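In response to the reviewer comment on reproducibility (Comment 2.3), we provide here a single inverse folding case reported in full, input and output, so that an independent group could reproduce the run without further information from us. The structure tokens appear first.
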């Protein structure tokens, strides 16, 4: 199993998309500062996750989330979440 996930920085409100085969371990790495791209944006919280049975599918889905249509999908999919949380930044990813 492979997990495609969206994290939100509690520091600046920005989002980060990634994929992994071990979600728990990856989240620990993000929050311990061992991932360069999120190191300065800690703490991070998991706000969305999808499961794929194939690594290539997970990679494609992660790429989709980082593109314009994927960003729009996440904004719409998590509309209620974003309405309930004040974000310090309107930029995602």
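Designed residues, in position order:
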């Amino acid at each position: 199993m492979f997990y495609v996930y969206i994290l939100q920085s509690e520091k600046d409100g920005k989002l980060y998309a990634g994929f992994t085969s071990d979600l728990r371990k990856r989240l620990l790495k993000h929050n311990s500062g061992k991932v360069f791209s999120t190191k300065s944006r800690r703490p991070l919280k998991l706000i969305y996750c999808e499961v794929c049975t194939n690594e290539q599918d997970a990679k494609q889905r992660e790429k989709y989330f980082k593109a314009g249509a994927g960003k729009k999908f996440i904004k719409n999919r998590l509309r209620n979440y974003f309405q309930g949380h004040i974000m310090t930044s309107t930029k995602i990813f």
